[in-house]
Design goal:
Number of helices: 1
Helix content: under 10%
Radius of gyration: 13 Å
Shape: globular
């Protein structure tokens, strides 16, 4: 599975932005997908994850209620809808895919495949 995240850019505080994670590979619908982010000078942090079918999702407390993760397996794509963006959301956002069905592992970043990131900059 190869992953490509895109959709980043420069936005203002309070704006919305949707990121996409496009995947290649016929077995994409078998994989859980997670979004992570890394701000300058900080460690990578978990943002959200979704199970293989889309029926199960988890979020970091910092984005809960503002971000929504979803997927379209027919299009081999996972989305991260980001609303009410804040300057502290500024980071490079990465998507990752893995076969684990355990949310704990999703949060810990235990995935088989990682994509290149897309930069989101939120100006104040």
């Amino acid at each position: 599975v190869q992953l490509q995240a895109f959709g980043g850019g420069l936005v203002q505080t309070g704006d919305s932005r949707r990121l996409s994670c496009a995947a290649s590979g016929r077995t994409f619908s078998s994989y859980a997908v997670g979004w992570f982010r890394q701000a300058p000078g900080k460690e990578r942090e978990f943002v959200a994850a979704i199970n293989y079918s889309g029926a199960g999702t988890i979020y970091a407390d910092s984005v809960k209620g503002r971000f929504t993760i979803s997927r379209d397996n027919a299009k081999h794509t996972v989305y991260l809808q980001m609303n009410s963006l804040k300057p502290e959301d500024t980071a490079v956002y990465y998507c990752a895919a893995g076969l684990s069905t355990t949310p704990t592992k999703w949060r810990r970043g235990e995935y088989h495949y990682w994509g290149q990131g897309t930069l989101v900059t939120v100006s104040s």
